[in-house]
Amino acid sequence: MTKQLAHPMVKFQRKVSSLVESNVLKPSDSIWKVALLYGDQWDYWKGELLEFGFTMQDPVSELLMVEAWDED
C-alpha cells in the first residue's frame, strides 16, 4: 500500500485558507498580498501560481476554489 502525497499546491492552498479563516487575508484580496506573508519563499509560489494560470491580481477566493491541482 502506497501513501499518496499531497501536491505542494494543496498545502499552499490550505495555508492560504487558514490565513483567510484567521482574518489575515480576505477572500477578495489580490493573490499578490500573499507575497507579504511568504517573503523569500514567494518567488517559488508565484512561479507555481503563474504556471496554473493565475495572475497576481486574481482574488484569493479563486485560489481557494481549485478542487484539484493536476499538472496535465
Automatic annotation (TrEMBL):
Domain of life assignment: Bacteria
Classification via Pfam families: DUF4327
Protein name: DUF4327 domain-containing protein
Lineage, opening ranks: Bacteria, Bacillati, Cyanobacteriota, Cyanophyceae, Oscillatoriophycideae
Organism per entry: Rippkaea orientalis (strain PCC 8801 / RF-1)
Family annotation (InterPro entries): DUF4327
